[in-house]
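Figure S7 source data.
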Amino acid sequence: MSIRPILIHPDPRLKKVCTPVDEVNDDMRKLAGDMLETMYDAPGIGLAAPQLGILQRLIVMDCIKEEGAEPQPMALFNPEVVWESEALNVYEEGCLSIPEQYADVERPAEVMVKWVDVDGAACEAKFDALWATCVQHEIDHLDGTLFIDYLGPLKRQMITRKMVKLKRERARA
Ligand code: K2U
Ligand code: ZN
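Tokens for the predicted zinc ion complex:
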């Protein structure tokens, strides 16, 4: 298992529509493991493959944040939302590819998601609360959508300018 570098916005690879995973093999299982290790190290509660520069439809999540609670790592291959509630929920979102920037994003409060798991089995489950926000945030990454794309143009530009500055400073370090 290895911790891999997370791409920082703006990066063209974060805006691409990712390719479906055609076979859940050992390489894909290793990638899922590396993504979970990278996510826990960040720390974060979700991570999508394009954030590591891999344009495949794979996300990982573990939204259990309570200290001492049993972690609940999940790897979802080819995830898709098949139903969403009318009810909406607002959450102050962040993103590991847009560090230290937070904004309120409104999304359906509950979603039903279909995916393929690490054993290649077809799965379907309903997500609510923080899990619902996270799974929608991660599936957005697979379609090249970032949470800042839901903000007004001025706020999005301000955040993008801050990230350009941050990347320049990191490059100099
Ligand atoms: O995709 C990512 O960058 C991972 C995000 C996922 C996420 C963002 C907003 C809301 C839910 C999930 C990271 O986990 S950002 C860090 C974080 C941690 C706890 C709560 C919110 C954000
Ligand atoms: Zn993100």
